[in-house]
Amino acid sequence: MHDVMIYQKKNTPFMRSNAYTNCYEFMFVLSKGKPNTFHPLKTKTARHGPEMLVHNKGPDGVNKKVLKELKKEKTRTNIWAYAVGYGGTTTDKVAFEHPAVFPEKLAEDHILSWTNPGDLVFDPMCGSGTTGKMALINNRRFIGVDISKEYIAIAKKRIEILTTKLI
Ligand SMILES: C[S@@+](CC[C@H](N)C(=O)[O-])C[C@H]1O[C@@H](n2cnc3c(N)ncnc32)[C@H](O)[C@@H]1O
């Protein structure tokens, strides 16, 4: 287990009456040994530019301030938030014939983090084909498997639509 991450849903229609509405799922990053690839995704910082910052306290216990340059971006945390539903998850209407489509951006963010162009991405439970679509858009190769023929048909349709657009 390399990391346990959280997929946070920015919006969810499934309200609960006796508890707070669930708005997250786990994302397990599994790796045989160290991951071969890691391209950390960045996020903009709230403040950047020169700022007086508290520096190491000396033995006298007095806080000293020094001028430092705050960076414009930093590596994201392991909680990733996405809008869900039409427009958030995807704009492919056919995808919603599957009951549990993941956001395209979520699949893309993992593909960009853990693989390089030309790598082979395998999704053994590919559902509506989100991972495949995003793998192909990002110049990766893809193999998808699903137990359901109906879902494979949806995935194929989505990838066909994409490849027609790319040609
Ligand atoms: C949460 S969905 C995946 C959704 C997909 N990421 C997407 O964006 O459309 C999980 C999928 O796993 C498939 N599945 C469940 N058990 C399976 C098994 N034993 N072998 C292959 N696929 C399986 C289901 O049919 C379902 O499509």
- Major sheet attributes: 3 strands, mixed
Mean pLDDT: 94
What distance separates the N and C termini?
39 Å
CATH architecture of the largest domain: 3-Layer(aba) Sandwich
Query: Runs with pLDDT <50, length 5+?
Result: none
Beta content: 25-35%
Number of domains: 2
CATH classification class of the largest domain: Alpha Beta
The CATH superfamily of the largest domain appears as: Vaccinia Virus protein VP39
CATH topology heading of the largest domain = Rossmann fold
How are the strands of the biggest sheet laid out side by side? 2-1-7
Please tally the β strands and state the result.
9
Report on this structure.
The chain is of the alpha/beta class and 167 residues long. It folds into two domains: 3-41 and 79-166, Vaccinia Virus protein VP39 (Rossmann fold, 3-Layer(aba) Sandwich), CATH 3.40.50.150; 44-74, no CATH class. Helix content is 22%, strand content 27%. The protein has helices at 104-114, 130-137, 149-166, and strands spanning 3-9, 24-29, 42-44, 49-55, 64-70, 73-75, 79-82, 120-123, 141-144. The strands form four sheets. Strands 2-1-7 form a three-stranded mixed β-sheet, with no helix packed on it. Helix 2 links the parallel strand 8 (120-123) and strand 9. The longest helix is centred in the C-terminal third of the chain and has 18 residues, at 149-166. It is elongated. The two termini are 39 Å apart. 20% of the residues are buried. The model has no long low-confidence stretch (mean pLDDT 94). Residues 98, 100-102, 124-125, 127-128, 130, 145-148, 151 line the site of S-adenosylmethionine.
